[in-house]
Amino acid sequence: MKRFKILLLYPNGTLMNPPPISMGVFTALLKENGFEVDLFDTTLYQDPDNIGSDQAKEENLQARPFDYGERGVTLKEGRLEDALVKKLEEFCPDLIALSVLECTYSITMSMLRAIEDINIPILVGGVFATFAPEILLSYKNVKTVCIGEGEEVFIEVCKSMAAGEDYSSVKNLVLKKDGRVIHNKIRKPVDIDSLPIPDYSLFEPERFFRPMAGRIYKTIPIETNRGCPYSCAFCNSPSTTKLYREHTSTAFFRKKSLKVIQKELRHLVKKWDAEYVYFTSDTFLAISDAEFEEFIEIYREFEIPFWMQSRPETITEYRIRKLKEIGCHRMSIGLEHGNSEFRKRVLKKIFNNKTIIDASKIIADAGIPLTINNMIGFPDETRELIFDTIELNRELTFDTVNAVPFFPFHGTPLHKVCVERGYINEDSYFGSLNVDAPLEMPQLSKKEIKGLRRTFALYARLPKSYWPEIRKAEKFDAEGNRAFENLRNIYQEKYFN
Fold first, then answer.
1. Sheet holding 5-10, edge to edge
2. How far is the C-alpha of 295 from the C-alpha of 281, rounded, in Å?
3. Rounded mean pLDDT, 443-461
4. Range of the domain at 369
5. In this structure, are 41 and 166 located in the same domain?
6. Is residue 214 part of a domain?
7. Which of 37, 408, 451, 485 could crosslink 415 through cysteines, CB 3.0-4.6 Å?
8. Is residue 492 included in any domain, yes or no?
9. Taking the complete model, does pTM exceed 0.90, yes or no?
């Protein structure tokens, strides 16, 4: 009897991120349930419209220079659309499944258009599918979308399809049926401790390499929790929390048990000969003191560096000292905005400036390099408010600093604000983080945001005597480009050597 075959599609930016945990879990679940599964991953193809996210950071002085060539990582030749069609012809799947983020939607569109005349059912999930199912259902070859978590949904759909049974009543699905769009009920969140260890065997070896502080490491991602206990207005997490609370009366934020994390680390570090661990949690230190102590003891056995991100409120001298002892190599903290009143009122991110100043000093004193993450171009933001963010960054102690344009992704509270104020259209979507700022605002142009993104690190770190020259470098003309290259060389010599 022919086995039911599923092709997983992973639309991703060029050389962006380690292998996704979701694809690893889906692969493991499908194999456990007797299905044949293969993968098409776009990460090693050059996106013709955008450079890779890490390369963009390096060009804007937001990451230390790196070279993938030192580990033999090269991009594939040819068009990914042609390669996808060839993959379908060779594998002949019974179902195509893909997970979509809004920042990879432009790649998703190219893939869906390339296969729109191929008569194979498509199931689409992911954060973008959860909050903008109608956009995805507008494609003629997409008839089924998964809202929220997909582990249980995916297996139930595959079993029904393999048996020739109707799957239209499966919870979490939104379907096109008989000319109507049907929204099924939402099921309770999965028990993340019961999920299998991610199976990354379908990914090519080059996919595990990632730049960290100028070196390329073989990296594995580890999930320690799912969701977030905070309610930032620029993030999808508050809407996900609300969705599950209203439909299932349960909390979406869950922590994975430390014993399960230990089991996954032991398996994955050995399996992939890992050199680096990438903890994917939005707020890694949102744990109790007892959980923290257990993690410290568990991680001592691995003796390989790791990266994590957290919030400034979670930083203490004791915790950072212990993390340094067991191999914390780098950390990231999201500031987002330097004006505390704006940060509280618009972003719903509540902490005072002294908290992050103190946190950055604690981390620096422990000898852990820190990245500060910022956004610019929020609704109603002005140039003066952006310089509040720059001024606060100048008070922080860090190794690298990021600044990206704000994007009002679907499912975020600020998306609704931007629509109401006419800064975007209701059906706008944002296919890449490397494109220009998306908001049309009278007081702050897209061109100005683009220039401030390029020069943000310069403003945040170089002496103010350089500021007139940095102002020139905001412009993408001959004079501005010359000024930026000169300042870039000064910055790299001063801070990256």
1. 36-41, 5-10, 95-99, 122-125, 144-146, 173-177, 180-183
2. 14
3. 96
4. 223-461
5. yes
6. no
7. 408
8. no
9. yes
